[in-house]
Amino acid sequence: MPTLPRFTELNPRVFEWLWVAQRTTVCRASRTAGLTLVELLLTVAVLAILAAVLIPQISSDIPERLDAAAQVVASDLDYARSLAVANNSKYRITFETDHNRYCLRHSGTVPALNTLPRSPFRQNDDSANQQTTSLSELPMPRPTVRLAAVVRMQSGGQAVTDIEFNSLGATTASQESVIWLACGAGSHRRYISVHVNAVTGLVETGPLCAALPTAIVTIATQNLATSAAVSEGN
Asked: Which residue of 26, 100, 128, 208 sits 20 to 30 Å from the alpha carbon of 68, by its own alpha carbon?
């Protein structure tokens, strides 16, 4: 407040005027702050409503989510293959369709290789000898991409739980292995496949599909139902 001139005697009304002026200034400032806060809260509320309306529309882009998840699976398979070749040993990826995840481990005969190299993708509760990837925890909106089936292309399709690579980069199976991923529900559900060549061990992703091959339908249906039940239980 500006310094007031000094007077030997001030009129009491001057003090009254100063008090009123000061009180009015404080009240105006309080009202201004209150209105600003209300406006801010209203803005946040409007943004929340818009987000609730727009996010489901954005997250309905199922093909892109399936493709992204397939790339993650393909990269992890490539990583397991590269470890097998580099260390002249065997590495295995075990799939748990009911928990929508898979785990990388050393499966060779050299105990020193059981400890996996450090990786930023390892989960906090993973031990030193495993690296787990959960599709349910990928940074993607719902619905979650799920492991529908892991099959070996033998007699049209045989359900398996793992894919293992040897020191030459090939798989230890003699037939191609295929991982099927699913996303969505009902008529909106789509699928994508990840193929592992048995001879070379090389990985490639397939096209987006609206339906599974006939030989895979029963396997995938059972796996997806079990996975959904486990997810609801958690």
From this structure: 128
By the 10 Å C-beta count (0-12 exposed, 13-18 middle, 19+ buried), 13 is classed as exposed
CB atoms within 10 A of CB 139: 5
Give the residue-averaged pLDDT of 182-193: 94
Radius of gyration of the chain (CA): 31
d(CA 106, CA 197): 20
221-233 residue pLDDT tens: 999 988 887 776 6
User: Which neighbouring-strand residues pair with 131?
Assistant: 104
Residue 20 φ/ψ, nearest 5 degrees: -65, -40
Q: Is the pTM of the predicted complex or chain greater than 0.85?
A: no
- CB proximity list for 194: less than 8 A, separation 6 or greater: 70, 73, 74, 77, 178, 179, 181, 203, 204, 205, 206
With b meaning 16 or more CB within 10 Å and e meaning fewer, what string describes 36-51? eeeeeeeeeeeeeeee
The pLDDT-based confidence of 162 (bands split at 50, 70, 90) is very high
- Report yes or no: 168 and 183 within 8 Å, Cβ to Cβ: no
Instruction: Supply angle C-alpha 46, 52, 57, rounded to 5.
Output: 130
Other CB atoms closer than 10 Å to residue 226's CB: what's the count? 13
Residue 158 near residue 167, CB atoms below 8 Å: no
